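Try this one yourself first.
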């Protein structure tokens, strides 16, 4: 299954009703997730049984540069942030290519709702053979008090159910091979405009 999408403009977030959604915490909407099932979303890095699954699942075509990505939240956890990361060849490189970390939780609006946030897609030539994917993580910071370093994400920050994982396979029509990409890290904590529209985030 293949899907295409258009390049979008600067940071924007919308909250919309998602019709017919199943019960989960957070899952990719666009790009399309490897599975629409909510079972096993607590398993690093992509959900139970979905590690390194690059065939016979949806794949979304992206272009390099700023793109809007959408993810669905059906169960709200106050203050729980998100992370979006990139990998190629396998599901082992997400920590090296973080597109956007510490995306703040939007406390406004009833679930289910769809969050839209812009990230910068790297200028890489990701064919189907390159096995590229985007990972979404939601960390349940309302469930624990100690900081959760990136090294603890595979352990769900200390207990199964403290983090949820969703992955989406992508093709990127860029220029350089993914293996030439230097590691990078972008975070909302580093400054810059809020990923949410004014008035949508409670004070």
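Now uncover the answer:
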């Amino acid at each position: 299954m293949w899907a295409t999408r258009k390049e979008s403009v600067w940071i924007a977030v919308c909250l919309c009703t998602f019709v017919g959604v199943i019960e989960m915490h957070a899952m990719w909407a666009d790009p399309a997730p490897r599975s629409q099932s909510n079972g096993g979303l607590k398993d690093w890095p992509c959900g139970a049984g979905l590690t390194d699954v690059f065939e016979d699942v949806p794949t979304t075509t992206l272009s390099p540069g700023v793109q809007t990505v959408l993810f669905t939240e059906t169960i709200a956890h106050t203050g729980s942030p998100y992370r979006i990361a990139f990998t190629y060849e396998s599901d082992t490189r997400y920590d090296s290519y973080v597109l956007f970390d510490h995306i703040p939780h939007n406390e406004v609006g009833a679930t289910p709702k769809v969050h839209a946030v812009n990230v910068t897609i790297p200028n890489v030539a990701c064919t189907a053979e390159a096995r590229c994917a985007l990972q979404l993580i939601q960390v349940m910071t309302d469930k624990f008090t100690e900081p959760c370093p990136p090294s603890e994400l595979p352990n769900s920050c200390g207990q199964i159910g403290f983090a949820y994982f969703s992955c989406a396979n992508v093709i990127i029509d860029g220029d350089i091979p993914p293996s030439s990409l230097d590691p990078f890290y972008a975070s909302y904590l580093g400054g810059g405009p809020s990923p949410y529209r004014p008035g949508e985030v409670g004070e």
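Discussion: Residues 4 and 113 are 22 Å apart (CA to CA). Confidence is low (pLDDT under 50) at residues 6-23, 197-203.
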